[in-house]
């Protein structure tokens, strides 16, 4: 049974950006970054009012199809609630279409706002972070960015289905065409205290759908084995041994296939890695993520600025906050 929220319930949500993959951890490793979107939601008697300030204000729909609005409604629906009207204000800082998880942040922020409204109406209706990860990942189709924005810090995420994990591709009765449920899971890791992320943000944008389309359906077994070892090493490097960050962020699974579509990104990854700095594509790009423990070199900062890239040291963020 769906219950209707009263008017004048208000929540404010602060949700961090994220970077996914961290090199070898395709669709599984993520990190929350200290760039924040803020969303304020108030229930009203009827209708929808939405205002967007900052990043993406001229690009996103100001109506019911807005990702934040859809996520708020999904969060309320999960709690068995409905709002006759909503007043939504989005103050955006996270760059759009740059590989910093802006869509995941929007979804997480909207869902967290729905959860917050539900908890203000009835404390027993608030749901946990595990549910928040699940619902957000259903929007995204993978959990790495969403889990980082929910949990904060560094996350390892994965997907479970009711299809046996060891069922060989192409085997008889492999379930092709059969719908399988998907459960999205994640755990937060404690980052090494000296870890300092830096992002180099170009002016141009990229399309996740386009860059994903550049990936092959299959990869050589040797490349898969390489990435498995480096993803495991990345967990060690990020939490205990930052001196291993350079080898731990090497990748053969996705970055090379996308390189031609991201020439400036590729140039800077090669330049930084040649300088001994662990650099990767942030998500689907074009932002470059650099992971280190010391000051980012001033001469590289100047060169990046000359190439039209904004250098930001955001720090590692905690997860989404609701007031």
TrEMBL record:
It comes from the Bacteria. Keywords: Amino-acid biosynthesis, ATP-binding, Cytoplasm, Kinase, Nucleotide-binding, Threonine biosynthesis, Transferase. This is Homoserine kinase. PROSITE patterns: GHMP_KINASES_ATP. GO terms for cellular component: cytoplasm. It is an enzyme of class 2 (transferase). Gene3D superfamilies: 3.30.230.10, GHMP kinase, C-terminal domain. Catalyzes the ATP-dependent phosphorylation of L-homoserine to L-homoserine phosphate. It holds the Pfam family GHMP_kinases_C. Its EC number is 2.7.1.39. InterPro entries: GHMP_kinase_C_dom, GHMP_kinase_C_sf, GHMP_kinase_N_dom, GHMP_knse_ATP-bd_CS, Homoserine_kinase, Ribosomal_Su5_D2-typ_SF, Ribsml_uS5_D2-typ_fold_subgr. The gene is thrB. One of its GO terms (biological process) is threonine biosynthetic process. It catalyses: L-homoserine + ATP = O-phospho-L-homoserine + ADP + H(+). ATP binds at residues 95-105. Its main location: cytoplasm. Pathway: Amino-acid biosynthesis; L-threonine biosynthesis; L-threonine from L-aspartate: step 4/5. Belongs to the GHMP kinase family. Homoserine kinase subfamily. Residues 67-153 form the GHMP kinase N-terminal domain. Residues 248-295 form the GHMP kinase C-terminal domain. GO terms for molecular function: ATP binding; homoserine kinase activity. It is found in: Cytoplasm. Signal peptide: none annotated.
């Amino acid at each position: 049974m769906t219950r209707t929220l009263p008017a004048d319930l208000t929540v404010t949500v602060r949700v961090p950006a994220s970077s996914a993959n961290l090199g070898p951890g395709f669709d599984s490793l993520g990190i929350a970054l200290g760039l924040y979107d803020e969303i304020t939601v108030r229930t009203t008697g009827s209708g929808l009012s939405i205002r967007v300030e900052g990043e993406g204000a001229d690009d996103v729909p100001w109506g019911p199809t807005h990702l934040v609005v859809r996520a708020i409604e999904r969060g309320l629906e999960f709690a068995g609630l409905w709002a006759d009207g909503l007043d939504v204000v989005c103050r955006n800082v996270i760059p759009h279409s740059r590989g910093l998880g802006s869509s995941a942040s929007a979804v997480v922020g909207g869902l967290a706002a729905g959860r917050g409204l539900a908890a203000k109406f009835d404390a027993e209706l608030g749901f946990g972070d595990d549910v928040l990860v699940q619902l957000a990942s259903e929007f995204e189709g993978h959990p790495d960015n969403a889990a980082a924005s929910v949990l904060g810090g560094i996350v390892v995420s994965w997907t479970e289905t009711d299809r046996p994990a060891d069922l060989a591709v192409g085997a008889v009765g492999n379930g092709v065409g059969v719908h399988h449920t998907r459960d999205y899971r994640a755990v937060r890791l404690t980052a090494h205290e000296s870890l300092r992320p830096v992002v180099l943000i170009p002016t141009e944008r990229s399309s996740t759908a386009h860059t994903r389309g550049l990936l092959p359906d299959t990869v050589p077994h040797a490349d898969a084995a390489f990435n498995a070892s480096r993803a495991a090493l990345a967990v060690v490097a990020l939490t205990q041994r930052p001196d291993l960050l350079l080898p731990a962020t090497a990748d053969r699974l996705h970055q090379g296939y996308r390189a031609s579509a991201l020439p400036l990104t590729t140039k800077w990854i090669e330049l930084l890695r040649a300088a001994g700095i662990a650099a990767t594509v942030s998500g689907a790009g074009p932002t470059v993520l650099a992971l280190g423990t010391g000051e980012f070199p001033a001469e590289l900062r100047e060169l990046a600025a000359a190439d039209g890239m904004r250098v930001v040291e955001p720090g590692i963020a905690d997860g989404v906050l609701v007031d």
